[in-house]
Amino acid sequence: MLMAVVTFSLKDLKDSGISIEALKDLVPRIGMEIEAASEDEVAIDITPNRPDLLDFTGLIRALNFFSEKKVPKENGYTLKDSKAVEISVTKNVSKIRPYIVGLVARKVDLSGDKLKYLINFTEKLSDTYGRKRMKFSTGIYNLDLIKGNLTYDAAKDKPFAPLGFQNEMGFSEILEKHPKGIAYGSIVKDSTGNIPFLSDSEKVLSMIPITNSESTKVTNATKNLFIDVTGTSLASVQQVANLLACSLLDSGAEVSQCMIKYDDSEMLSPRLEAKEVQVKGTKISKTLGIAIDLGDAITMANKMGHSAARYGNTLLVKVPPYRLDVLNDQDIIEDLAIGYGYDNISPLPIMGFSDGLPEELREFTDSVALFMVGSGFSEALNTYLTNERINSESMRRAYKKGETVGIAYAKTENITMLRTDILPCLLKSLSYSAHEKMPQKLFEIGSVFSMDNSKPLESHHLAFVSEHSKADFSEAKSTVLAILNNLGIRDLEIKKFDDKAFIEGRCAQVASKGRHVAVFGELHPAVLSNFNLEEPTIGAEVTLIDRITYGA
Amino acid sequence: MHVYEEKLLKALKSNGVRKLDELGALGMGTDSILWAIENLLKSGAIKVVKSKSYVATITQEGSKDLTLFPEEELVKSLIKSGKKADISSIKNNIGLIWAKKNGWVEVNGNSVSLTQAGEEIASGAKAYWQKDILKLISKDDKAVSKLAESGDEQLDNLVRRKLLSIKEKETISDVSITETGLKMLESEVSDEGKISSMSREVISGRKWETQRFKGYDVDAAVEPIYPARMHPMHELVNQIRKIWLNMGFVEVSGPIIESAFWNFDALFSPQDHPTRDMHDTFFLSNPSQIDIDDITLLNKVRSMHKKGWGEPWREGLAKKALLRTHTTSVSARYIKKFANEIESSYPIKLFSIGKAFRNESVDYKHLAELHMTDGIIIGNNLTLANLMYILERFYSKLGIKPMFKPSYFPFVEPGVEAYYYDERRKTYIELCGGGIIRREIAKAMGTSKTILAWGMGIDRMMFNLLDIDSLADLYKNDVDWLRNRGNLKI
User: I want to staple A248 with a disulfide (CB 3.0 to 4.6 A). Which of A105, A224, A235, B123 is the partner?
Assistant: First the structure.
């Protein structure tokens, strides 16, 4: 699960009435986690379903409701006059980043840490929920420095001074030199070479979704804001505008709508309509396993920021517009459980008989493992992920590219494929313990992978190795025969086998009824050197199940 | 007294002081003699005189130089280039340093010229002393001790050049019996005629009826043996299986190579979710795709995504082949399989345990490959309180009392996380995540039943169960560790 971490000052929290003790108690109760706390700051992990908590105002709001210091308003949020700013959208953006919405906020207080929190909030939001600005991103502008109405357009190049720069640069230069241009440029590079931008009647305000202009920069003293949200999904940009509007309203600002004008349509944003969800009373207790009456359920809903009312046997819940995660009654029922307190729910046994049953495959491999331990081999477990050097080259074996299961990309450079055999893994294990007392005998049972007619094939192998000064072919053969006898495999045909991993003439293959069963022998000195082994070593690879088929 | 000790003491008594290398004639192996000496020294029965000696090993580099030292190579090449060369043309730096030190060449500014002494070496008229010493040592083991004792300076040079490594060794040269030893031997005389070792003859010849057995020193040191053992992770996996089986769960399993469909889409994970990035998940290059044969299911999952996430859903992304990132993919497959059984077979309780893969940067607590266990219960009227009960029962068998808090996973609602307070590490530790499978998923899988689901990684339990510092140590299979590790502390 991917979480976003937000950091707030303890002093700011305290000024808002939340002590560190209260925070430590409340944060886990609402499903989040305190990642770290120092003397003056606290870092909180926020799960991806609750972007509203990435914001200082949003967190305080949630904690105040949860601790019942405040009760959600029934009639929700109120906007000021409408149509504060007009944004015209041109056709040039339709194939790159078609949607824009905006909002205007007046009498905003950005003093102290408040500007930082607002910027962090929008950045985290665009980074997580907005998929690193791909799905949506936001821009914050000083409204008082915007002249006239706005145009959302796209062009190859336009001069403007990006944030942090005093001189004008072109779009192409920003893509090359500006840190945000380098980081996010690829999102808007399309075949036409056009880059989306927002401008007022005089100048470029931002290159989207890269950077705003220096000319409309917001400071701690800024009182009036214009915020845009652009993206590839209309639903997302509208939701995000709602989220930001609620946050600004709850911090005491006045918010007004913007008019978005397309060629053939118009739209107002933000809308701040509360979603209504109905939850059946019986459904609540049937899901949570607690007896709860609807009167209590209203309190639980309030603790989670919803206003709620009872209608017969049904709970009517008004979901505030900042709650982007609520899809239907299931999500409300979870909120009620959180409001009720997970630690107040008493665990209840399940009725109905059921019979435990182990899986046959596992019982089988377990019995083979027991046999091997009884034969004096210690069990090793290696990773299935490996690379050609260990799996093939060190064994003097060659696999064609299409025959093995390949990993497309690994962060660790020594991972390129899934193992085809267990033997190389065991030789690698022996390489760590050259100084230990001989004989050293290891076995492993596990999956190996290959390709069969361009379909992946998972098999179960057993491999063993024995390293000591007198290890020889006959020891390998005796052991293999004992294993096969135990497995009940009869009619063995043992033939000389050509496998470069073993010494020529000291390697054999066992088949039964025409099927390959095992290969064993004395490992070739070149192979031993590849694994830094200095004592004679024998090994075998036995196929236990050549094709695993699963039950579902 | 052990028979070896007795033998040795007797020999020392009859001959007085003995040289160690003469003791071989007693018909005992060197190890046995040394073992007897060590025991007798402890009981004060003998005295030894120790002497220092040196053992030399010629390094790989040194054995190359036995044929030609770099400085020899240099003077030979100077002969070819007219006894002079530009310093920049000489790549053989080691050779140059030593040739200069030995007075075989002179360096004036940028020019290197051969001296009389150098010419003599190059022509073979004179032998090179470093080489002579190295040769001597390679042929005669004892030479090094003599040279070391005389404080030969060239020997130091060879060691410094890493051509030779010299170890000091303390060896026993003379052994003699003490008064205590003589007394011990006298008292041992009474053992004469006693049976020393058991044999067929002793048993079937009924010798034990007439002769007594010689006693052993029961406190004497013995060779350690290392019985073979299961791997600790196998033990833990079986422990966990046993718990689920005892709780009435049926064990199931599923493929490791999986489609994004079963790993993500069927579990309502949005297609643009960051975990579906190649930086978090191992996607495969071969095979790159796995087909989804059940078209009805495919379409149901498609509409679940469209409705839930409001985004277009791409079949191509669902077909991508990957290594499962959790065993929850197995649970998804079984929700589908057991969607419509006869009513009396519910509740169906299943668990799986197996490997899952994460494209992680590996460190002490992150591996790219981990073991997970997942469980589901499919049935009627199943509640969050039921899930808590199951998890509480499970963890109590591992000696852990879990607590519960809300958490988020896209496939469950409500979601729950179990955690506990670890007394040893003085911190809260996450145990597992779970919840009630979203109705949308159950519907897409074709069932109207309620499904409780949970999953957990188990590798990290090993930090408490075995004293390890890094998860990577679990899969190195160091033989010493496999032999000497402690038992799982369950």
Answer: A105
Say what the pLDDT of residue A203 is: 92
Interchain pair A412, B362: CB under 8 A: yes
Predicted local distance difference test score (pLDDT) of residue A82: 61
pLDDT at position B132 is 82
Q: Please answer yes or no on whether A350 and B246 come within 8 Å at the CB atom.
A: no
Q: Does CATH number 3.90.1150.10 belong to domain A276-342? A: no
CB nearest to A347's CB, from B388, B407, B482? B388
- Tell me the CATH number for domain A360-545: 3.30.930.10
Q: What's the confidence (pLDDT) of residue B152?
A: 73
Q: Cβ–Cβ of B274/A381 closer than 8 Å?
A: no
**Strand B369-379 with B403-406, pairing:** unpaired
Chain A neighbors of B397, CB-CB under 8 A = none
Report how far residue B317's alpha carbon sits from residue B290's, in angstroms, rounded to the nearest whole number: 10
Is the domain spanning A4-66 CATH 3.30.56.10? The answer is: yes
**Average pLDDT of the residues in B158-162:** 81
First-to-last C-alpha distance (Å) of chain B? 44
The answer to whether the A276-342 and A360-545 domains have the same CATH topology is no
pLDDT in tens, B53-90: 787 778 777 777 777 888 888 888 888 888 888 888 88
B388 CB neighbours in chain A (<8 A) are 345, 347-348
Which residues of chain A fall below pLDDT 50? Answer: 1
Which residues, 6+ apart, have CB-to-CB distance to A183 below 8 Å? none
Distances (CA, A) of A181 to A98, A127, A170, A191, B90: 20, 15, 11, 18, 50
Task: Tell me the three state secondary structure of residue B227.
Answer: coil
- What residue spans define the domains of chain A? 4-66, 85-269, 276-342, 360-545
Give the right CATH number for A85-269 from 3.50.40.10, 3.40.50.150, 2.40.30.20, 3.40.50.2000.
3.50.40.10
